[in-house]
Amino acid sequence: MRVAFVSMETTHYRDTEGARRFERVARHLAARGHDVTVFCTQFWEGSDETVERDGVTYRGVTISPALTSFAVRLPALLALFGPDIVHARPDPPTGVLAASLGATVARAPLVVEWFGDESVDGSRFADRAATLPDMVDTPSEMVRTRVRERGATAETTQVVPESVDMETVRETDPAEEIDVVYAHPLDESANLESFLLGLAELRDRDWSATIVGDGPEREGYERQVRDLRIDDRVTFAGACDRAERVAYYKGAHAFVQTAHREYFASELLWALACGCVGIVEYQAESSAHELIEEAERSFRATDPQQIADAIVDAGEFERLTVDEEYAEFDHDAVLERYLQTYRDLQADRGLL
């Protein structure tokens, strides 16, 4: 299949979760043997119009992020490429309008990948970015609801979750056993204090905890751990790579999720696949609770005391290092959802 991805700014300009997901899907499609080109602002040196990375071709539409020039040039380039599918990001919304025009000329369906962290305002152009596509993919029901509030319908929106590498989960050796682990950048949305206050409620019990992540709030959280007199049982592991994180998750009995904002709780998903019992504190701006709605090995909480109770109750479940229930979130399984969407949209247009 010939797929045109459209993203004016790649991760080389703005490294966001949504941008990383978008480019990861492109790489996975290319690894499956599909012909994938990302139409974007040039991020490489020299005068070459294209460059290849990890099997994906990147086609420079402009040499710098110039919205007007990008939108004017894109439709003709898409038409010349002749894609079977056009898959775009909603930021900027004008880029979606240009991608829609190019897709129409190429007689190709348009899919928009709306992660939730894009800089999309409340303008009519942004609303058109939600209603023009044949399908809008979102990572969670929370984000899907927000897209529908812009005018999209139930029929033209769907949830395609983030994915994990189950092979990595199965093959990584566990780290030293601990009772509970937390993972999130230690920034303004981390809300680590809920977790720490929950741990403080368990001072009289024997437990150990690891905090994975780094950021501007780390020093303050380390001070809070000392003030709560639990610093002898809490380890700050800092920023860790994927292999290290998986090892920590496989060594832990439970994973606690308290962050204020999550468009998709990726680290929670990895931890669940590694056998952790999931403990999620409900947050209005987080979709994390969606991952455990039907999970037996999980608890919901609304305050530190309930987090503490859930950590204790997690002991009712046996320790696991792999939970095959989450194989449906494997990279290959989730990629197949994208491919099936492409096929369905082509079939609806009589293109198959």
UniProtKB/TrEMBL annotation:
Alphabetical list of InterPro entries matching this protein: Glyco_trans_1 (IPR001296), Glyco_trans_4-like_N (IPR028098), Glycosyltransferase_grp1 (IPR050194)
Protein name, entry field: Glycosyltransferase
Phosphoprotein listed as a keyword: no
Keywords: Transferase
Glycosyltransferase subfamily 4-like N-terminal domain location: 19-161
Domain spans labelled Glycosyl transferase family: 174-312
Organism this protein belongs to: Halosimplex pelagicum
GO function term, MF aspect, one: glycosyltransferase activity
